[in-house]
Amino acid sequence: MTDDARYRRPRNRLWRRILALGRHAAIHLSNYLAHFLLRSDSLRPVYAIYEMTYGCDLHCSYCDDGRGRPYPPQASETRPLPLRDAVAMLRKLRRAMPSIYLSGGEPTLHPDFLELLHEIDRLGFWPVMLNTNGLHLERLLRKDADFLRYVDILIVSVDSMDPAKLDGVLRAGPGAGRRVLEALDLCLKLRQTCGYTLAVNCVITKETLDDAVGVARFCKARRVKFAPVVANRGKGPMDPVTEEARYAETVDALFAPGGPELLSDPVLYEVLLRFRPFVCHPALRIHVTPDGRVPWPCQSDRRLALSVSDHESLPALLRESERRFPIRGQGRACGSPCYLAQNVSTDRYFTTTAWYAIRDLILKR
Asked: What's the sign of the alpha-carbon dihedral 173, 175, 178, 179?
């Protein structure tokens, strides 16, 4: 335990899960009734993607905010909320939904990252998902040796097991790839002690196509969940990787029997990597920008972005957003061209098998 009195041991993970499951059940029932009986697209969000900061010490070749812009240059324009305001925002989010996904930029660069993670735990979010490059975990562990116990699903971005190849992807100078792989090794060592589910997010581009199978084999050998995706730029794939003759062979190899366990529904990844049609339901998950705004109707097709702090509650903000720009038929109207896991998962929300619904909500840590 850290000697810093600001931090304490996290709440019992099982207790957080039990409390969150009741809210999940109520939201699922409400959304199923709205979708199947009322044919409504005004759905209750299941989780929030909180982009804690746009700052990042890497400059990945595929970095994209959903509108064709990389995150780091936006860090000076969109600054994180002060701690007090961020805590107030998190409380409003928790009253509306049980789950949260922490991303960036690089979320661990937020100046109040540990304090906010402590508050997220106190509020009882479950699951708490953290997507990171891993480079700052060791520094944070020196401040709070228990902070990774606050995380239920830890996702580390690794696109190649070759440090030199990673250097070219990350564009952060020689040695960046080696440091990311060392961070992944640290996460493996702490996994059993801290109790989180460890996953690797592998972004496939023309540059890394030949490396994806190697990452999958690593995940299989180390019992790490695997989450392969194709790089997007704005609304669609970043480069014509799917036109490569080796692409179909690579995807077949990733899904071959005996491969690594996927982070979520296998059909979701089939849709993502084989570019099968789907219908996005953007209301099922919301983005929250570092300055506390909610892009509407989604991150890629932002028509407005109202501030959480300007509204009494998140439902009030969503009602006002829909009043200004009705969301009905949005996924069909735009054609659902963004092949992101967060988008495809909204389609699978209504079509996935009962087993994966149960596994994701109950059996996952």
From this structure: negative
Radius of gyration of the chain (CA): 19
Q: Give the three-class secondary structure for 126.
A: coil
Total count of residues recorded for the chain: 365
User: pTM (2 decimals)?
Assistant: 0.92
For residue 231, give the H/E element and its range: none
- Of the candidates 170, 109, 181, the one whose C-alpha atom is nearest the C-alpha of residue 140 is 109
**C-beta separation of 117 from 95 below 8 A:** no
pLDDT tens per residue, the chain (365 residues)? 343 434 445 667 777 788 888 888 899 899 989 988 988 888 999 999 999 999 999 999 999 988 889 899 998 899 999 999 999 999 999 999 999 999 999 999 999 999 999 999 999 999 999 999 999 999 999 999 999 999 999 999 999 999 999 999 999 999 999 999 999 999 999 999 999 999 999 999 999 999 999 999 999 999 999 999 999 887 777 878 888 889 999 999 999 999 999 998 888 999 999 999 988 999 999 999 999 999 999 988 889 999 999 999 999 999 999 999 988 777 777 877 888 888 888 888 887 644 455 555 555 54
The answer to whether 296 and 321 are in contact (CB under 8 A) is: yes
CA-CA distance, 309 to 291, in Å (whole number)? 10
Beta bridge partners of 195: none
Mind listing the domains of the chain with CATH numbers?
13-363 (3.20.20.70)
Q: Is the dihedral of CA 36, 38, 40, 43 positive or negative?
A: negative
